[in-house]
Design goal:
alpha/beta, eight-stranded mixed sheet, 5 helices, globular
Length: 188
């Protein structure tokens, strides 16, 4: 059975995007970017909702070809393009870069993918992750909490139908002041 991991940069007040989908506050330091790049290397399959897919696919397919691309950008872009991805959307009609589109029941498909043998899956996007949270499918939460208050926007956590008990498995502070916490879901 695969492990499903939900991780993103998050503001101290709990948002993954400020009002207007502003992500300017969440540009990672070199160390934090390397952490996310290492996680990408360890991930077998990435699951995206529509909005996060549009953000990622507008940048990473050609990020390694930009004149100002750092070696870390080049490495991340190549990994991102090559890895298997699934996008869940009823409004997108085409995807590319080793990606499959699912227009039907996201929870049913994520449940099916989790039941397969294979490496870890990452899930990104508040709406998609929220559906997986409510269905009890997320095994690990990774929060890179930035020292900023954005006052509103897209929350990392969605409204839940019941409690989710977690166990802290890692915490560390990056030189930029971001605090990384990893929690595993405690199952009965």
């Amino acid at each position: 059975m695969r492990k499903l991991i939900y991780g993103m940069n998050v503001s101290l007040d709990g948002y993954i995007a400020a009002p207007g989908d502003d992500l300017g506050w969440s540009v990672p330091s070199d160390e934090l970017f390397q952490f996310w790049s290492d996680r990408l290397r360890a991930t077998e399959l990435s699951l995206y909702g529509r909005k996060l897919w549009r953000t990622m696919s507008s940048h990473w397919p050609t990020a390694d070809q930009r004149p100002d691309a750092t070696p870390a950008d080049v490495e991340f872009a190549r990994r991102w393009r090559d890895m298997s991805k699934v996008v869940f959307s009823s409004t997108i009609d085409q995807v590319d870069w080793n990606t499959r589109l699912v227009t039907g029941d996201a929870v049913a498909e994520i449940t099916r993918l989790k039941a397969e043998d294979g490496g870890p899956m990452d899930i990104g996007g508040a709406t998609l992750a929220g559906a997986a949270m409510r269905a009890g499918l997320i095994d690990e939460y990774v929060l890179a909490t930035a020292p900023v208050l954005v006052g509103g926007g897209t929350p990392f956590f969605t409204a839940l139908d019941s409690w989710v008990n977690l166990e802290l498995v890692e915490s560390r502070t990056f030189p930029c002041g971001v605090i990384l916490t990893r929690y595993e879901t405690r199952r009965p």
